[in-house]
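hey m, so remember when u said the tokens were messed up on ur end? i reran from scratch. heres the input so u can diff it against urs
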Amino acid sequence: MIKQSPYRNIFVYFRGAAVNQTQVDRQLEDNITKSLINLFEHSDKNLLKDFLNNIGITISPDNVIFDLQVANPESRPDALIRTNEYDIYVESKYEAPLDDVQLQKHIKHIEKTNGYLLYISKQKYKEEIMQKYCRDKVIFFNWSGIADFIIKERDRNAYPKKTITNFLTKQFIDFMEELNMITFNGWKNRDFESFLVTENENLRVAEDERKRVKEKLKQFLTESKEKLVQKCDFYNGCDLYIGNLDKEHVWGAIKFDDGSLIDQIHINVSMNAYIFSIGIQIEGIKPSTRAIKVIKNNKDKFLEILKKLPHFHYVIRDRYQIQAAKWDSSVVAEIVLGAEITNDDLEYIVKKMEQYKYVELRIARIYDKHKVINKGQKFIEECVDSLVIVDEMIQFLR
């Protein structure tokens, strides 16, 4: 099997040597900015005009000059778009926080010129930061907003197929998706295949692929949490956690309390080469002991809640220590929940939980990858609805 290489995209670059993560991010920021400028410079001139008009800057698109790494007396912005009307400076951020000193220098320069500063970041900055600096000539924007604008232009067929602009906008959107800098648009087969370890795979490319999926999972959880809080107050104040990445799977969690994840009931989301699962997880000794006690003392209530969870699986795993501070587990029982579940099923669950010294409990939706691929935002909605349903079970077992 030949995996899809991201380097087929014209904007994806071969990463140079970097001493630390700061240098990696700096390289990425420079290349994202370069890609944006290349897109506008070589596309139909109306693409730039319409984009700037969308953010409140009106220009004529003729005689535009583009430049990168501009040296000014006060500052050094990442790019310049010089039109007949204005100098529009671009400062690009990826993971880096807002640089107050740098921003002040940029503002000082544009106040002396007939210019604008477009400050682009991966994530939206807090409202108080934007209020502090946002003024007529300073515009905060995020990369997903730029991608959304270009996607809408493509959706309305503004630039016909077989034109350079159509090709460049498609390549740019694919590049933004590569960096998880567009609104989550669904899991792809490629995401799952990143966890298929092949004999002749390029180790660096394979590692980068799995890191990309890890970032995509973080994005999935972030957007899911935003929608979840709107639908269910129970999830207000919860935190996201992204687990360690390995060759075979990636996982993340939504936690409700301070302290170690293993010592509390939480929401687990995980994926490997074949499945995607989302639901309740209880694995530590204290929370699992408490959950079993609550279930045994309130069997009728527990059965009532289980009947309200169609398509969920109740999974019991035997949890055992393999060396100091390292545990493993194996499935010993699995039951599909819903209205059909019986008292006999309940007694079987209780018996299996008591059979082992330590157990890990999961109440989760488990999807074959083919049920997930290309569902787009609909899959986030489906997962959010599932988590709204399980809030009663979480509160019952906590």
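this time it looks ok to me. The chain is about 40% helix and 20% strand. if urs says something different then somethings off w ur setup not the seq
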